[in-house]
Model the fold of this input.
Amino acid sequence: MSADETLIRIADALERMSPPPLAAPDLDGAEAFMWQANPDQLVPVAKVARVGLDLLVGVDRVRDILLENTRQFAKGLPANNALLWGARGMGKSSLVKAVHGALVAEGLPLKIVEVQREDLPSISRLLAMLRAAPHIRFVLFCDDLSFSHDDEHYKSLKAVLDGGIEGRPENVVFYATSNRRHLMPRDMIENERSSAISPSEATEEKVSLSDRFGLWLGFHPCSQDAYLTMIRGYCEAYGVEIEEDSLRAEAIEWQATRGARSGRVAWQFFIDLAGRRGVALR
Done:
């Protein structure tokens, strides 16, 4: 084999090992994207699974705060990163998606990008990609965010919240949901404090991560009245007819079998009710 042929084979092998960079994403082609790493790409979402803001009952105060914060951001005004924390099934992720949908309907140039916790180490590359589209505003959304004691992913999150030396892109804001106010279990915080030489510093780095969110929006277990109001709202929105007494009795029995009341339980009961009543949800 000649020297030229050897060089060609080496060049071909190197190209296979290091493929050409992916084409720039069409950020104007969709309202929502999923971030995937290795290889890095923004995957467009054709239809976001969400409900309307008017169907989210019992969260009026946090709804209004998040809606106004996001509207300010979409208009190019200052806005805070937001941590939605608290009781499971009370509409934290539904609220983020509903707020995005409402503002898109207003004609604002707002996109939502969902990021998995496992992909946080690649977040700096995503930020560089979004920084290159300053005419678009992006909400980065991480659902069910939490960290364990040996989890280093939280360090990558600081690139979004603080931005390092370059700063967070002006066209990016970060929203996260979590069942934990400080993004880590309380018993883990206490264990690390009790076993550390300097208890006050043992968990400061991780606990202070939640302090970097300008908005803390708490979600709490709903009352029975709110639970029934949620279901009645779904029935009216989707045209499911049922007498009030029957609705109340069946809904209370359903929540008793689940051992909890929440927006998620209300929706699950409504799905069962609509199916039994032969109503397709469009």
The first strand starts at residue 32 and ends at 36. The chain has a mean pLDDT of 83. DSSP finds eleven helices and seven strands in the chain. The two ends are 66 Å apart (CA to CA).
